[in-house]
Design a protein that fits this description.
heterodimer; A: alpha/beta; ABC transporter transmembrane region fold; Rossmann fold; 6-stranded mixed beta sheet; 4-stranded antiparallel beta sheet; elongated; B: alpha/beta; 2 domains; 12 strands; 65% helix; ABC1_TM_dom (chain A); ABC_transporter-like_ATP-bd (chain A)
Chain lengths: 584, 606
């Protein structure tokens, strides 16, 4: 599989800006490397007693000029690089989110939201840090080193002396190469232990009720505690390594300065160099030590973010598993569906969720699908929406294999109302007009009337502009379901799938809603999935599912006459209200 | 995402107060590590000495040896040796200092995590009803990690950089009080820059934080609702909305970058300009022979050095903010108390062993609701003799599960009381009560661990032999035998490879091992197919012998052989009696039974 590349195309596309940033940083550092020289000459003039107040003022002004120029140039270079980093972050996030919208149910089932969020948050951030701070720090260090070396040479310092003084600093890469992988290995252990601890916390909080019920809190605390202890010890083992590294790097800098003092001082004593040159040498060394010390961090950050970059590229290269066929057909004119010998198993499941389903959802009919939790009702709905892929030839719409139909055209033609009534944290209006954003107020109101939520919405202070979610109003389960129903109805799609859509609605409201749905959906194909009989007893045909198989089919009346699951459910649900008696 | 709150003014003030309380709370955790912190301060002094003394040593070299024309090399060598020694000490003590701060910081986090988990495991079910588990996990792992940065980064920087600053000032005054006096002019300039930027930086930081949390909230919500986005073919629209938030976060980032670059660079500029200024002032002094050149040299170096610690302290600002927000969140959790007061002292059972309680249960006119306005149970009175098997039937929402939640004391009643052996459950210590009452739910929960540990729930006082015996007793032995590693097979909540029925058998074995005197089976067989149900049913019968047992079920066959069947409707007891009594009555129950009979005859054909 070809890996999608992220970084190189971006950097190439911003080539000019990067070049400008590099130029600004380079000029800034070249100018900065003049400063020890100014002070060195100042010292020599002092030594040779040729110092005058004018020269003093001149030197001071020169230093001030260097200060201003360096700050402006280096500052703008740094700003440019950081800005480019943030832009990379923005573009990559957008790319990721778009990719997420293409991944299917199967991906979402196996990857938690937290896991996917970490791509958007930490991985993107870590790559950004590498390309912004590492870029400017490396550029800084390299350019400063080169220009300082040149300046030292130009000001007449002997090459041997320079080499001697700089040599300890050249050990920095050696240290990095030695410590880098070891530190990374230990920091990976820390990450793994942290992940294990998080997982354990997740598991234990999920099972908290069991823990509390059996009163085994101390054992569970010990279990969690052992993970915490592991994090502690791996953190400390990491610290042993990393703090040695962090202490050694400045030590090399100090050794450089010791050599400068001794060797430079010796040459100054013997007159091989002037005192001014000695002064500028010590200042040069101090100037280049800092950026070179940074290189250690740079290399480590880069390696850390390389892992993130790879993760991102891998994610972006996963191909969505539900794709259009080579030549997709639009959704056919008639929404009559035939299901032939459909068997579907979730990956890794021992038993199929649906088995040998033979079913016809006739054009213009209302078909009911009833069964207990886990009987496979929702699986069927998801297969019809191609959230999951049915076997070839198992589902035909107006004679066409569902797999040959354009996914978007298919989904545009189906209004799906799921049980959970998931709503977004935006206004009620935006939630209802979700699939039809340009819907006018009248359409929104009409849909909400049919869904039996209109009156409730008017009761809110802001009516349809009421915001939902954390910062807004919290709706009850029934209100959420009805809003979600309005969202489905406004679509006026050729096929409507109600997946236990009114399960949290009270009986009176439910019957009103059922009546209005019957009215709106007259002569339109509708599939009602429910575990409550009252929601679908009016259907033209009712299919009874149990453990993934169709066990009964017929109309409400005919099914009540039969003894079986349907009659049992009817009696359980309507017992005492006079509906279920016929079955007894 | 939990904890990503919008930021507004009123809240900010409250947060500020909460944060300072939280930081104070953290100090309690820091206290046991007092010696390490003192050690850190001590080590820091030596660790920074080499870097600080370098300009001074060079000054001595220049003034005493180079400038005065002496040709002797040995003093220079001595100075070099001294400096090397200092550097070695600095290497050693930086290392020790780093170790100490990490030992303290990680130790604090370790304790914090353990305490937080212990605290969470003491909180009542109503707390877990309200909180998302994802949010809690973030608090335990993420927020504690951020807090540790407070110690390992912020504290370290304050000690190290603060001391560096103080020492630089000290050396400057030692070298030349007049020049040092001039340099003091820098302090108000630094303060002015910091004051000018501080408010603005805070604002930009908060702006980008709040835009980031908006972006995260949007992304998290869309990821959870992605099936809807896709089902409604709204990918493009949502990408557009994502891009709005993404761009506004980007804008905030740019503002933050601008502010930060300006801020850091103005310190830089100030530092470099002071070098020029010192050269001018000092140069004139040297010219007038009032000052040795080495002093001027050291001064210039110190002035440049002065800005490094200031920069690194200001860089800790964001970490400090993040840490105080996290500390505040953790503190709020610690302040959450369980809604169930565990003050009871009355023991039940023989010799105070709750597992040997008699098992007489009474509900006295119990009224209960999850919110006071909507009572789920509306005056339930029940008297259950020890050892009886009680079936509870009723439709969804009739209050079956609420009834047994009160017996387990997951919640407290609003009116009336529940008693076991004549003792109000509120008077029984929770540990005792929970050992006395066993519960098997519809969804058995497996922990990651071996079968043995899953049965005995990691309680090593229960021997593996007892676990095996329990498994044989409930008929799980054969199933365990089929697993690759037998009783040592590792299970986990996700993907244990066991079917629903097999998982349920494991949870029955738990009951056998823990031997509660009262047993509740809450729809324990609802998720099972008919063949597994048969197997589980047998296990269930063996388990319930000699125990007061409550069986909640929607299938009549599960409860029909109970000593007494309670039929619940809308939070009240509609009918109660044995199967035959209820059948004779010919009421609701009788109808249910007739249908279930029908189902069983019909099923082979369907």
């Amino acid at each position: 599989m070809k890996q999608q590349r992220l970084l190189l195309p971006y950097v190439t596309s911003k080539g000019w800006l990067y070049a400008a940033a590099l130029l600004a940083i380079a000029l800034g550092n070249i100018i900065q490397s003049l400063y020890p020289r100014v002070l060195g000459e100042f010292t020599d003039k002092l030594q040779s007693r040729s110092l005058t107040p004018e020269i003093i003022a001149q030197s001071a002004l020169l230093l001030a000029g260097i200060a201003v120029l360096f700050t402006c140039l280096a500052g703008s270079g740094q700003y440019l690089v950081m800005r480019l980093g943030r832009e990379f972050e923005r573009l990559t996030r957008k790319q990721l989110f778009r990719h997420f919208t293409r991944l299917s149910e199967a991906y979402y089932a196996s990857h938690g939201v937290g896991h996917m969020l970490s791509y958007v948050l930490s991985d993107v951030k870590s790559v950004r840090e590498a390309i912004s701070s590492c870029f400017s720090q490396t550029a800084n260090a390299v350019i400063l080193l080169i220009s300082a070396l040149i300046m030292m040479k130009v000001s007449g310092l002997p090459l041997g002396l320079i080499t001697l003084c700089v040599s300890p600093l050249l050990l920095i890469p050696v240290l990095v190469v030695y410590f880098g992988p070891r530190i990374r290995k230990r920091s990976r252990e820390v990450q793994n232990d942290l992940a294990a601890m998080t997982e354990s916390a997740e598991e234990q909080i999920g099972g908290m009720r069991v823990t509390q019920k059996f009163s085994v809190e101390p054992m569970m605390e010990a279990r969690f505690g052992s993970h915490v202890d592991e994090v502690y010890s791996s953190q400390l083992s990491l610290v042993k390594m990393s703090s040695l590294f962090q202490a050694l790097i400045p030590f090399l800098g100090s050794v450089s300065l010791v050599l400068t003092l001794v060797a430079g001082g010796y040459q100054a004593l013997t007159g091989a160099i002037t005192i001014g040159m000695f002064v500028s040498l010590t200042l040069y060394m101090r100037l280049i030590i800092n950026p070179l010390q940074m290189i250690g961090n740079v290399i480590n950050t880069m390696q850390r973010s390389r892992a993130s970059l790879e993760r991102l590229q891998e994610l972006l290269s996963t191909r969505p598993d539900i794709r259009n066929a080579a030549d997709p057909l639009p959704f056919p004119a008639e929404a009559g569906i035939v299901i032939k010998g459909l068997t579907y198993s979730y990956p890794g499941a021992a038993q199929p969720a649906l088995q040998d389903i033979e079913l016809q959802i006739r054009q213009g009919w209302t078909t009911g699908l009833i069964g207990r939790t886990g009987s496979g009702k929702t699986t069927l709905a998801k297969l019809l929406l191609r959230m999951m892929e049915a076997p070839e030839g198992a589902i035909l719409i107006d004679g066409l294999d569902i797999r040959g139909i354009d996914v978007h055209s298919l989904r545009d033609s189906i209004a799906y109302v799921p049980q959970d009534g998931f709503l977004f944290s935006t206004t009620l209006r935006d939630n209802i007009a979700f699939a039809k954003r340009d819907a006018d107020q009248q359409e929104v109101e009409e849909a909400s009337r049919y869904a039996g939520i209109y009156e409730n919405i008017l009761e809110f202070k802001d009516g349809f502009s009421t915001k939902l979610g954390e910062r807004g109003v919290t709706l009850s389960g029934g209100q959420r379901q009805r809003t979600s129903l309005a969202r489905g109805l406004i679509k006026q799609a050729p096929l409507l799938i109600l997946d236990d859509s009114v399960s949290a609605v009270d009986a009176v409201t439910e019957s009103a809603i059922v009546a209005s749905i019957r009215q709106v959906r007259r002569n339109k194909t509708t599939l009602i999935i429910a575990h409550r009989i009252s929601a679908l007893k009016h259907a033209d045909e009712i299919i009874v599912l149990d453990e993934g198989r169709i066990v009964q089919r017929g109309t409400h009346e005919s099914l009540l006459q039969e003894q079986g699951l349907y009659a049992e459910l009817a009696s359980l649900q309507q017992g005492g209200m006079g509906h279920g008696r016929t079955g007894a | 995402m939990a904890g990503q709150e919008p930021e507004n003014r009123a809240k900010q003030d409250r947060e500020k107060a909460g944060q300072s309380a939280a930081i104070r709370g953290l100090l309690v955790y820091a206290k046991p590590h007092k010696r390490q912190f003192v050690g850190v301060v001590g080590c820091t002094i030596i660790a920074i000495a080499a870097d600080l003394l370098q300009p001074y040593i060079v000054k001595i070299a220049i003034d005493d040896h180079l400038m005065n024309g002496s040709k002797e090399f040995s003093p220079l060598l001595l100075l070099g040796g001294l400096y090397l020694l200092l550097s070695l000490l600095s290497l050693l003590f930086s290392y020790i200092q780093n170790q100490l701060i990490q030992i303290a910081g990680q130790g604090i986090v370790m304790q914090l995590r353990k305490d937080l988990f212990r605290h969470l495991s003491r909180l009542s079910p109503s707390f877990y009803d309200r909180m998302s588990s994802g949010g809690l996990v973030t608090h335990i792992s993420g927020d504690t990690e951020t807090v540790s940065q407070f110690f390992t980064q912020v504290c370290l920087s304050l000690v190290r950089d603060g001391m560096t600053l103080a020492f630089i000032l000290f050396f400057m005054f030692q070298l030349d009080p007049v020049l040092a006096g001039y340099s003091l002019l820098l302090l108000p300039a630094i303060a002015l820059i910091a004051a000018l930027f501080r408010g603005y930086m805070r604002k930009t930081y908060q702006l980008s934080r709040s835009r980031l949390s908006r972006l995260i909230a949007f992304t998290a919500e869309n990821l959870s609702g992605m099936n809807l986005v896709q089902a409604f073919h709204q990918e493009r629209e949502q990408v557009k909305q994502f891009e709005d938030r993404n761009s506004s976060y980007y804008e905030a980032n740019l503002r933050e970058i601008r502010t930060n670059v300006l801020f850091n660079r103005s310190f830089d500029l100030l530092g470099n300009l002071s070098v020029a200024f010192v050269t001018w002032i000092g140069g004139r002094a040297v010219y007038g022979e009032g000052l040795e050149f080495g002093v001027l040299y050291a001064f210039i170096t110190y002035i440049r050095q002065f800005f490094q610690p200031i920069n690194s302290i200001t860089q800790q600002w964001n970490t400090l903010q993040a840490a105080s927000v996290s500390a505040d969140r953790i503190w709020r959790l610690f302040k959450t108390n369980s809604e169930l007061a565990d003050k009871g002292v009355t023991t039940i059972g023989q010799d105070g062993d709750p597992r040997r309680a008699v098992g007489a249960v009474r509900f006295n006119d119990v009224v209960f609701g999850y919110t006071p306005e909507e009572p789920v149970l509306q005056g339930i009175s029940l008297d259950i003799e020890p050892g009886q098997r009680i079936g509870i039937v009723g439709t969804t929402g009739a209050g079956k599960s609420s009834l047994i939640s009160l017996l387990c004391r997951f919640y407290d009643t609003q009116r009336g009381s529940v008693t076991i052996d004549g003792v109000d459950v509120r008077q029984i210590p929770l540990v005792q009560l929970r050992r006395a009452v066993g519960l098997v739910q519809q969804e058995p929960y497996l922990f990651s661990g071996s079968i043995i540990d899953n049965v005995r729930l990691f309680d090593s006082s229960i021997s593996p032999e007892q676990v095996r015996e329990a498994c044989r007793f409930v008929g799980a032995d054969a199933l365990v035998g089929r697993l690759p590693d037998g009783y040592e097979t590792l299970l986990s909540e996700k993907g244990s490879g066991l079917s629903a029925g097999e998982r349920q058998l494991i949870s029955f074995a738990r009951i056998v091992v823990f031997r509660p005197s009262i047993l509740i089976l809450d729809e324990a067989t609802a998720n099972l197919d008919s063949s597994t149900e048969q197997m589980v049913q047998q296990a269930l019968n063996s388990v319930s012998v000699g125990r007061t047992t409550f069986v909640i079920a929607h299938r009549i066959s599960t409860v029909m052989d109970a000593d007494r069947i309670i039929v619940l409707r809308s939070g009240r007891i509609a009918e109660s009696g044995s199967h035959s009594e209820l059948m004779r009555r010919g009421g609701y129950y009788a109808r249910l039974y007739a249908h279930s009979q029908g189902e069983q005859e019909e099923q082979p054909a369907g």
